[in-house]
Amino acid sequence: MKIDHTRIVLTGAASGIGRVLLNELSAYSAQIVAVDVDETALQTTLESIPSNRAIITPYLADLSLAARVDALFDQALAVMGGIDLFIANAGYAYYEKIETPDWDHIVKIFQLNVFSTIYTAEKMQALNADRPYKVVMTASAVGHVSLPGYAIYSATKAALHHFAEAYRFELNTPHALMLVYPIATRTNFFDTAGNKVPVPWPNQSAETVARATISGIEQDRVSVYPSGMFRLFRLLERFLPFLRKALHNWENRRFQRWLASR
């Protein structure tokens, strides 16, 4: 898909991978609705873009409810007249030991990470009918290999992975849906997951993820794995299954140290 002269919605645009994606996308002749829940961070992000060819419209929204996703689509259509590319990047994590049953705690993260993202894919299909479009979902490597401390978060990303695998069979063009599977990314993402959360190893920069995402869009790929090390891990563990156990043991020791330090 060519990014020039497209109409783009980018969620989670004010921090982490989304912020770098917005900066990269600003170099294209495109219209962009940049969405975030944090008004100050979004304004700061827009002011930090040195120069751009894109026309960027900020939009403040918490997309955890269907009505707010509907309102975003209405606004994007009013501003741009259509949506060619929707990058569903908004999401967050819990790093925790599950001790007390908490229904609302589970629902809260699934609403944004899963329900909103899947609903967006459905709306994009209905909006564009037989014309070309693309939806990009920020999934995660933990959708393949879950980690101690991230039980619920891993479940949300695995849900996106399995939804995409099945949903592509329903699409006229399977490459209309692309998932990105970053490993741990060095951003403030982990600050929101908990207090002094250890960043898993290996990890990568937001710039690496953003550039791999844009390359994947331009090449019409359905899956993007920005980490070469993770791609190698997935290949090797087919023949050396102890690698997954070793990774789990390593991260569990860090998780137990984190629990002891609280």
Structure description:
This protein has 262 residues and is of the alpha/beta class. It has one domain: Rossmann fold (3-Layer(aba) Sandwich). Helices cover 48% and strands 14% of the residues. The strands form 2 sheets. A 7-stranded parallel beta sheet has the order 3-2-1-4-5-6-9, with helices on both faces. Helix 1 crosses helix 7 and helix 4 runs parallel beside helix 5. The model has no long low-confidence stretch (mean pLDDT 94).
Described by strand count, sense and barrel closure, the largest sheet is: 7 strands, parallel
What's the CATH C level?
Answer: Alpha Beta
Strand content: 5-15%
What is the number of helices? 9
What's the end-to-end separation, in Å? 47 Å
- Structural class assignment: alpha/beta
Outline the low-pLDDT stretches: none
Average per-residue pLDDT, rounded, comes to 94
Helix-strand string: EHEHEHEHEHEEHEHEHH
Estimate percent helicity: 40-55%
Total count of strands: 9
Q: Write the CATH fold name.
A: Rossmann fold
Shape category = globular
**What is the fourth-level CATH superfamily?**
NAD(P)-binding Rossmann-like Domain
What would you report as the Rg, rounded to the nearest angstrom?
A: 18 Å
Count of the domains: 1
Biggest sheet, spatial arrangement of strands: 3-2-1-4-5-6-9
Primary descriptors:
Rossmann fold, 9 strands, seven-stranded parallel β-sheet, 262 residues, two-stranded parallel ribbon, single chain, alpha/beta
Topology, pairings included?
Layout (H helix, E strand, L loop, with lengths): L6 E5 L4 H10 L5 E6 L2 H10 L6 E6 L5 H15 L4 E4 L14 H26 L5 E5 L12 H17 L9 E4 L3 E2 L3 H5 L9 E2 L1 H13 L4 E2 L3 H9 L5 H20 L1
Parallel strand pairs: 1-2, 1-4, 2-3, 4-5, 5-6, 6-9, 7-8
